[in-house]
Fold Cytochrome P450.
Amino acid sequence: MSVEQCPYARVTRLADVTKLLRSKSALANEPELFANVAEDPVNGEINVREFLAASFIFSEGESHRQRRKLLNPLVRTDALAGIREDIILPEADRLLASMRPDAGGTVSLDLVEFLERVFIHFTAGLIGLTDLTDERIALFRSLAGPIAAGTSSAYLADRTAINAQALAAKARYRDEILLPSLTWHREMRRRIDAGEVHDDEVPNSFLKMAAAGLDPCWDDDDNVVVESSMLFAASVGTSTQSVVHTVDLLHTWFAAHPEDQAEATDPTFLLNALCETIRLRAPFSPYNTRRALEDHVLSDGTEICAGQELHVELMAANRDPDAFGAPHDFNPRRPSPEGSLARYGVGFGMGTHQCYGLRVVVGNDGKGGAHVELLRKLMSAGVRPDPDNPPTSLIKDMSKFAIADIPRYLTYPVTLSV
């Protein structure tokens, strides 16, 4: 069968997904495929040009290896404790302390907003943003959602409107936040090179690397904007959604298993719940795209031709009954899968393009990262969905989704007892 006869192939079985993602015979994440340029050239080309092509996530070969090698130290093992203890948890405590309970001692808040404000501080440090007053943090947060939507508008309804909002948000991010920060880092680099400032006095960050010219791609300010906005969208958006979904799923679990309520603040239980959430509900796009470089035959006999587009459905693979018993159910007490497969399956991807922030989320050596500690704080405060205010979600183009129960929350009202 030719590529023309079958323009794309679905890859849904876990064995096929893991084999292909680890293989060098498929080209990972061509931005034109992810943006679905073939179906919608105008919007697709906007996404490629403005949000995708300059990001290391969509690079290949030596360019990808070089930039990933440079960025990896920002989330290395010895940085995880600092990310958790010095950035994320203090900001969560500060925000919780600033909230005023009602007469009954209950605090009402939007969990999406709360988590975005917490994770933005981590992201700002990761990127190297400067002069982060409360007003600028609020601006930063207001831009996060539209920019994230712009990176993946191919899977959303009313794509033209979403792209327009994303472009406006990106322009404000570039002019009011990113470029002033990059100018500061370039001045600090000049002073470091002149011996006026020691290198250790400027914390490591993406913009510090860009100002030092560590990769030729970052010599172009437009590329710096794209690279940083992808880091921004990925670290704030996916982190927020993973915690919100875990709270949502645990609420249902505790209603059905009240005996587990005593485990609500246990870090091992929460880590397993977070991994189970990621297995079931991540990533928040319906599939990853690949381009086959040679012919393949999938385990069900499906033939793949060289040059063919592949839709690698991570969510479907993570519900493979051969790997996970009762695979569609959320079960934080699910036995560990056999072999080397993690509890989260392929929720972080696999191979050279595996999410490089994995350890920030799940920790290191089996110990939970910042997300688990945030969940412990929320569970300790008795977090529960607000029965009077249902959550709202981004409207997706469901024709692209084989699995329909993966909302991307815009709001998720909850109550706490603090």
Observations:
- The first strand starts at residue 8 and ends at 11.
